[in-house]
Amino acid sequence: MSDTAAAADARTRLAGARLYLCTDARRRQGDLAEFLDAVLAGGVDVVQLRDKQLEAKEELEHLEVFAEACARHGKLLAVNDRADVAHAAGSDVLHLGQGDLPVPAARAILGDGILIGRSTHSEAEAAAAAVQDGVDYFCTGPCWPTPTKPGRPAPGLGLVRYAASLRTGRPWFAIGGIDLGNLDQVLEAGARRVVVVRAITEADDPGAAAAAFAARLRRAVEQDAAQDTARDAGREGTREAE
Ligand SMILES: Cc1ncc(COP(=O)(O)OP(=O)(O)O)c(N)n1
Ligand SMILES: Cc1ncsc1CCOP(=O)(O)O
Ligand SMILES: [Mg+2]
């Protein structure tokens, strides 16, 4: 497959993605491949290796395990921050924050053969990411303050509501402090895609946690579709009565 065809395929899979996991490569129990197989089988659609302590060489070594697991399950692999590592690892996705490499610079290095995601923390950043060339998806958050990103103020669910109001066709995810106990609040605010770290990596049964997230997200999407169908049928009925 050419780079462009691979990116088009990855973009299609991203459009259907609901659950995005960021994780380091350290495990409390079991080994990394076993953990990745469990969460991917559970319903994680995108896995990002996010570990600020790794040197590039170590990161690449861990990414081999991530890439094999993603390939086994047909899911997307993401690299955080580093365009060189993303390229060397053959990653599907590079995720860039506001302080990371600017998107055009990453595109100049990587070309079009990879998806690029962007973090946003304000309405202006979300509105820009929803239309900016070269961005394939964006994230809004943190929804709640989180020890996983210390010192990052939380714009909260207001930013999720704002992102939903943009009605962009570009995929976007809510992030930060999301767990199974507050997921409904995130869905009520309008998100249909979420990124989580601790809610899966620190779960007693990460595969079961992933499955519970995936099931709740799927239900929300199915409810949307049912509402759309009912609304369309209502419109049709009104037209026939006219
Ligand atoms: C999917 C996803 N969303 C947001 C982030 C955060 O990126 P950034 O703001 O650059 O912070 P760091 O993760 O680099 O500390 C992410 N990594 N992934
Ligand atoms: C990387 C990042 N960027 C904004 S919040 C966050 C971490 C989210 O982690 P958790 O799901 O454990 O709160
Ligand atoms: Mg970053």
Automatic annotation (TrEMBL):
Positions with a binding annotation for Mg(2+): D81, D100
Binding annotation for 2-[(2R,5Z)-2-carboxy-4-methylthiazol-5(2H)-ylidene]ethyl phosphate: T146, P147, T148, G177
Q: Residues that bind 4-amino-2-methyl-5-(diphosphooxymethyl)pyrimidine, according to the entry?
A: Q48, L49, R50, D51, K52, N80, S119, K149
The reaction(s) annotated as catalysed by this protein in its Swiss-Prot or TrEMBL entry are: 2-(2-carboxy-4-methylthiazol-5-yl)ethyl phosphate + 4-amino-2-methyl-5-(diphosphooxymethyl)pyrimidine + 2 H(+) = thiamine phosphate + CO2 + diphosphate; 2-[(2R,5Z)-2-carboxy-4-methylthiazol-5(2H)-ylidene]ethyl phosphate + 4-amino-2-methyl-5-(diphosphooxymethyl)pyrimidine + 2 H(+) = thiamine phosphate + CO2 + diphosphate; 4-methyl-5-(2-phosphooxyethyl)-thiazole + 4-amino-2-methyl-5-(diphosphooxymethyl)pyrimidine + H(+) = thiamine phosphate + diphosphate
Residue ranges occupied by any Thiamine phosphate synthase/TenI domain in the UniProt entry = 19-200
Q: Name the pathway it acts in.
A: Cofactor biosynthesis; thiamine diphosphate biosynthesis; thiamine phosphate from 4-amino-2-methyl-5-diphosphomethylpyrimidine and 4-methyl-5-(2-phosphoethyl)-thiazole: step 1/1
**Record field: transmembrane:** none
EC number annotated for this UniProt entry: 2.5.1.3
* Pfam families, alphabetized: TMP-TENI
Name the coenzymes or cofactors required: Mg(2+)
Q: What class of enzyme is it?
A: transferase
The alphabetized UniProt keywords are:
Magnesium, Metal-binding, Thiamine biosynthesis, Transferase
How does the cofactor attach, per the note? Binds 1 Mg(2+) ion per subunit.
Cite the InterPro entries for this sequence: Aldolase_TIM (IPR013785), ThiamineP_synth_sf (IPR036206), ThiamineP_synth_TenI (IPR022998), TMP_synthase (IPR034291)
Please state which protein family the record places this protein in.
Belongs to the thiamine-phosphate synthase family.
Entries under HAMAP family matching the protein: TMP_synthase
Q: Which NCBIfam families match?
A: thiE (TIGR00693)
PANTHER family in the cross-refs: THIAMINE-PHOSPHATE PYROPHOSPHORYLASE, THIAMINE-PHOSPHATE SYNTHASE
Q: What does this protein do?
A: Condenses 4-methyl-5-(beta-hydroxyethyl)thiazole monophosphate (THZ-P) and 2-methyl-4-amino-5-hydroxymethyl pyrimidine pyrophosphate (HMP-PP) to form thiamine monophosphate (TMP).
What is this protein's record name?
Thiamine-phosphate synthase
Q: From which source organism is this entry?
A: Streptomyces thermogriseus
| Lineage, uppermost ranks | Bacteria, Bacillati, Actinomycetota, Actinomycetes, Kitasatosporales
